[in-house]
Amino acid sequence: MMIEQAMSGIKVIDFSMGVAGPHAGTLMAQNGADVIKVEPPEGDWGRTLGTTYGDLSAHSFVFQRGKRSIALDLKSEGGRQIANELVASADVILESFRPGVMKRFGLSYEQVVAVNPDVVYLSVTGFGQTGPNAMLPATDAVAQARSGLMSLNKDRNGLPQRVELIVIDVATGLYAFQAVSTALLRRFRFGKGTYIDCSLLQ
């Protein structure tokens, strides 16, 4: 017996790079969504994490599974035009740039919702969209240190150590996927989209 996947028919435009956002997109693809990965011409920097195999790494194999792909230069007028056509019919948009970058591309939540009012829009950052640290770059290691996770992983001399996994990136991707899932449920029940501010530090 054929069972329909929960997200069949859902169109996702995934502008995110690295691990956290792409992980959320891959989980959606595994549940039947049509996920279109948008990368710059030089590729998602997540392709370079760890040992590389050609232009891919183990991380990119894992966190880009099940997606279709397109390379766009969002700094060019032509690239932005194609991106705007993609987001106009999207159910979900994922992005992981610093606050303000998507606005410069003409693809912020406020700009997209003007043409696609019930879209579910997820932003993944290091420290959220507002606050004193919002513009700071962040990695999994930075989030482990700032959150106190390293203090729970001390060496024999009592010094905090990084957990040798990208645990915060992966967990953030999982929680982001859960947030998008409940936002889609809200949309289907009440006809309303939403904006989701998700950070590694959270």
Provide a brief overview of the structure.
With 202 residues, the protein is of the alpha/beta class. The protein has helices at 20-30, 58-63, 77-88, 101-104, 109-113, 140-147, 167-190; strands at residues 11-14, 34-39, 52-53, 56-57, 68-71, 92-95, 120-125, 194-199.
Task: Describe the protein in words.
The chain is of the alpha/beta class and 202 residues long. It has seven helices and eight strands, in the order βαβββαβαβααβααβ. It has a six-stranded parallel β-sheet, with helices on both faces. A two-stranded antiparallel sheet has the order 3-4. β1, α1 (20-30) and β2 (34-39) form a beta-alpha-beta unit.
What are its keywords?
globular, 35% helix, 17% strand, 202 residues
H/E topology pattern: EHEEEHEHEHHEHHE
Count of distinct strands? 8
Largest sheet: 6 strands, parallel
C-alpha-based Rg, rounded: 17 Å
- The helix content, as a percent range, equals 25-40%
What is the distance, rounded to the nearest whole angstrom, between the alpha carbons of the first and last residues? 41 Å
Average pLDDT over all residues: 92
Class computed from helices, strands and strand pairing: alpha/beta
Shape summary: globular
Number of helices in the DSSP assignment: 7
List the uncertain runs: none
Strand arrangement within the widest β-sheet reads: 5-2-1-6-7-8
Tell me the strand percentage band: 15-25%
